[in-house]
Amino acid sequence: MTEGVSIPGIWWSSTNSFEAGLLDPREPLPPNSNHDVRLGECDFDTGSPRHRVDDSETTKPKRVLPPLSVSVTGRILHNSARISTLHVFYNKTDAAIENSSYYFVLPAGWMVVKFECRTGCQKIMRSRVEREKEAQNFFHDATTSGETAGLLKQVTRNIFGAKLGNIPARTKVKMELTFIAQLEVTEDNYARLVIPMFLAPRPTSLPSGKSHYSSLTDLPQRFIIEIQLEGDLENLRVNSPSHEIRVEKLCPPRNVTSWNALVGANSQEITEKSVVTWQGGPDCLDGEFILEIENKKIDRIQAWKETHDDINIGQQALMVTFPPIVPRKNTYSTRNGELIFVTDCSGSMTDKMEILISMMTFLLKGVPLGWKFNIWRFGSRQDRLWPHSHDYSSQSLETALAYVQAALRPDLEGSDLLPALTEILSTRDPLGRTEIILITDGKLWYMDKIIQYLRRARVDDNRVRFFALGLGEDIARRDIQRIAMSGAGYADIVRTTQVNREAIAVHMMHAALSQHNNLEDIEFTSSSGTRYRGNDGTIFTTILHGLR
């Protein structure tokens, strides 16, 4: 077994196979695993080492081609964004690189829509979508004939791999990836864009003390982020809790045919834009880049109409944005219920126990009178404070707080949540609603099975909801959000350096105590007065038929 870290860059060896899975060395392998079971279950880490567990690769030489520069450009409209990343690599050797691979974790709510490469000053490779086998055949035929070729493939549920073949010697390679991203929406009217660490490699020491980068000159010398915001800027406030940014408001140039057209234009027709920029040096990012946009109108339904640039085509597109149903403070349910806190005490939580204890203290003090509650711990096994939930009182709160201080330790080895969930649901109070709040770093075993179980549990009894609170910097953010979405709950993140932890705990409790609301139907009236009505799965088909 070899050891390494998960850094972006192009890896190449004498094989065509993708790299193996990554595991936290503080935890054991999952039972009956085939060594790569966790590849799709966790996000790449930002600093601590990970084991590479593909035994077949241990004797084969690997080299890394770090990026010279990384740039991210994007456009945000309401709570959606189009993000493009450009990596520039340089093969400074005197030999062509026959086979190379680049891996990245696709964040929650992101979709890949474009893959393009340029080698040197001439060859441009633009991607097209093909069936997997046909795409692999095209790539194989091109590379075996000596041509430079690229292949983008979904390796697992949330990890993609880009393969490049025959990178010429002494040649720069520009690789562009474009994504459509759905922004996270918080309870206090913020849309949050999170740019993950896979875009910004930084040197990370191996256990032996050696670095993947041979010298400072191997580091990316430039990293730029430029995000353009459009829409109603009067109601926007932009900030970054993670980095210092510069925000400029711009008015785009207009094409006019006369002076009268220029001076007579309605000022409301001029769309202002805000541009957010951040620029880093060789040290690049030291964590996720987070951009928060406060929009007072984000909780309203908005419609956008776009007309094709060529008016002769006469094509128009309509986008209707239905905001997430985010729980509000005034949606408290007066009915009593049961709150169950499920805490991750696996080995990967070793450096997050202080945050866990802090958040549990805040959450416990927010349980209302008349409710029942309990605390569970899970890892390779599970245990709990009481066999069944107890009524909330000053005495039970004191007992629970003492349990948090004494029992919350990273001593349960693995991250097997599923058996804990099964036992929790079998011991819940079947007579009322149950709100289950999971507190974890998200690096869980068998994530797909967990999601299937949550969905089935909701079908069996919709009085049960599941919430997720992610802790730390190297969070499996995608899986945290999947848990909340599948469990009809709410998700949030607490970073190690977070200063407003209590506010996040309050938001989580507001969500858990909110009423159970289900979207029944949607009604839409067109400009002609035609009314359409249906649920969220049928109305758009109805509207499209009506507009033909």
UniProtKB/TrEMBL annotation:
<dbReference type="InterPro" id="IPR036465">
    <property type="entry name" value="vWFA_dom_sf"/>
</dbReference>
<protein>
    <recommendedName>
        <fullName>VIT domain-containing protein</fullName>
    </recommendedName>
</protein>
<feature type="domain" description="VWFA">
    <location>
        <begin position="338"/>
        <end position="522"/>
    </location>
</feature>
<feature type="domain" description="VIT">
    <location>
        <begin position="51"/>
        <end position="181"/>
    </location>
</feature>
<dbReference type="InterPro" id="IPR013694">
    <property type="entry name" value="VIT"/>
</dbReference>
<feature type="compositionally biased region" description="Basic and acidic residues">
    <location>
        <begin position="51"/>
        <end position="60"/>
    </location>
</feature>
<dbReference type="InterPro" id="IPR002035">
    <property type="entry name" value="VWF_A"/>
</dbReference>
<dbReference type="Pfam" id="PF08487">
    <property type="entry name" value="VIT"/>
</dbReference>
<feature type="region of interest" description="Disordered">
    <location>
        <begin position="23"/>
        <end position="62"/>
    </location>
</feature>
<dbReference type="Pfam" id="PF13768">
    <property type="entry name" value="VWA_3"/>
</dbReference>
